[in-house]
Design goal:
- 82% of the residues lie in helices and 0% in strands.
- By secondary structure, the chain is an all-alpha fold.
- The chain folds into three domains: 2-123 and 281-310, no CATH class; 139-252; 311-372.
- Helix 3 runs parallel beside helix 5 (93-122) and helix 5 packs antiparallel against helix 11.
- The termini are far apart.
- The mean pLDDT is 80.
């Protein structure tokens, strides 16, 4: 139990030797340290999960996810520990709030970054369904685009095809009418188009010739239509329309499994909207509450430090800080005094040295003068 308590003290950024003297403050800093630790733990899981999707499909994806998760969690842990430990309780409430404001903003940003990957995991099933729907719509759109491009590119051929079809239908009707008139002519039925003479006479032969001419033309039209249809079919294969198929369930499952972080993040954002573009309030509130929960969890150590009254630990830490500052100032004065004395000593030594040199030089000049 003592080891866990000391560990959470360390997580809170407290000065352990000072904190041990004030038992009334122990539980407060255990709570702060535990909050910082579990925030870092959630950050580690979040970062590792996000990195897993970045390297999804790689045999080293799990290793990269674990490594990045540990690095990210450690970074968040140190940042939170610094944010909490740097708040000074000696100032007024307004000064403390002003001092904590940039740290709260930073905590909010960290909370948002941590919550997003975890939201991706919480709404995993809904995200997969949204991705499948998006992939299917995208495939529909690609097929429609190719078909429109194909129709525009071969518009002349489609026009000829339509004319041939219209002519074929017209010839088919004419041939049926001509065949009926030929039968009436042969059997002697009197109408506006027949003579009423029984037998295969001159009029019947004329109608047979007209019928044969129309049948020959129909055969030519159908051959041309078949050739045009084969040409358009070849062009359709060349343009890639023949091979385009809508995704089946198995393909959609595979695509959603290998979807990257960006696609999944987009799908998560789309969950809060209905198909008609209106806001899905239930999903939006669920996503928002999860984000707010992690933001509050990240800001909680700062709020606890701000809301807690100034205790004996804070006073002792302030006095310790003042003592350290005083010691540093005295140490500075000592160093200055030592430096001054050493400098004065060196200066005195240099003066004496220069005096001896000048005296020796004078004695030498005097002796040489006497000799001369």
């Amino acid at each position: 139990m003592k080891r866990i308590t000391r560990f959470f003290w360390f997580c809170s950024g407290a000065h352990v030797n000072t904190l041990k003297k004030y038992p009334i403050e122990h539980n407060k800093f255990v709570g702060i340290g535990a909050t910082i630790f579990f925030t870092a733990l959630f950050a580690s899981l979040s970062g590792g999960y996000a990195m897993y999707f970045v390297f999804n499909g790689s045999p080293f994806a799990v290793g990269f996810a674990i490594l990045f998760g540990l690095i990210w969690g450690t970074a968040i842990f140190n940042m939170d520990r610094y944010i909490v430990s740097s708040i000074d309780k000696q100032g007024t409430t307004n000064q403390q709030i002003l001092q904590a404001t940039p740290r709260i903003l930073l905590a909010i940003m960290i909370g948002i970054v941590i919550s997003r990957p975890l939201e991706l995991k919480i709404f995993d099933k809904e995200i997969r369904q949204k991705l499948k729907s998006a992939y299917l719509k995208g495939q529909h759109a690609r097929i429609d685009t190719l078909q429109k491009t194909y129709a525009q590119k071969y518009g002349t051929e489609f026009g000829k095809m339509a004319d041939l079809k219209k002519e074929r239908d017209s010839l088919s009707n004419d041939i049926n009418n001509s065949r009926a008139q030929l039968n009436q002519e042969v059997f002697g039925d009197k109408t506006d188009q027949t003579s009423g003479i029984v037998g295969y006479g001159t009029y019947a032969k004329q109608k047979q010739a007209v019928l044969q001419e129309k049948e020959d033309r129909l055969k030519t039209v159908m051959d041309q239509q078949s050739q045009m249809d084969q040409y358009l079919s070849d062009r359709k294969s060349y343009e890639g329309l023949t091979d385009m198929r809508l995704f089946n369930d198995h393909q959609l499952d595979s695509l959603s499994n290998v979807a990257g972080f960006s696609d999944r993040n987009w799908a998560l954002g789309q969950l809060s909207y209905n198909e008609n573009g209106t806001r899905d309030l239930d999903t939006y509130l669920a996503e928002s509450f999860i984000s707010f929960l992690f933001i509050l969890f990240e800001c909680l150590p700062v709020f606890v430090k701000l809301m807690s009254p100034k205790g004996p630990y804070d006073v002792a830490l302030s006095k310790l800080y003042e003592a350290d500052v005083y010691y540093a100032e005295r140490d500075k004065e000592r160093n200055i005094e030592v430096t001054d004395n050493v400098y004065d000593h060196h200066l005195e030594e240099e003066i004496q040295k220069q005096k001896r040199i000048i005296t020796a030089q004078s004695d030498y000049d005097l002796e040489r003068h006497r000799y001369d």
